[in-house]
Input
Amino acid sequence: MAQGFYITKEGYVKVIVPKNHPLRKTGHRYMFLHRLVMEGIVGRYLDSKERVHHKDGNRQNNHPSNLELFENQSLHAKRGVRNARIYKRLWNAGWLEERYLKRKMSCREIAKTLGCGEGTVRNALIVRKIKRRRYTLTKKALKARHKGAIALKPRNLNPKEAV
Output
């Protein structure tokens, strides 16, 4: 992090907050680069409710022509539905069922594939009435869990029966 920026696990670029920025006064050290670029475009600081959208879906492409400003999250979400970048696949008749039920992909893996949040995938599962699995284990993890269960000795409920 010596360069003054880093990339979050979600794929956004964060940079050190400029000295004269209001976020600095609230104790923040880093801020999203796309918000800083948008502030330069509109010529003012952004409100915390305002959202910046990456038109091409690439969270590291912070070129001014790729950014779009929305007043709030609701308008940003509606834009996503109209654009159908994520939702086209998510609401496609067999796409979600095939990934979740047949390929045994987790909500996290599907979300990563689409570039959306896990909550979006979970909501789609609920709407489509697909019964959610409690967890997804690989065959290797399942085997390891099974071996651990065999190795454990059963507990004695009554201390008098202990050998």
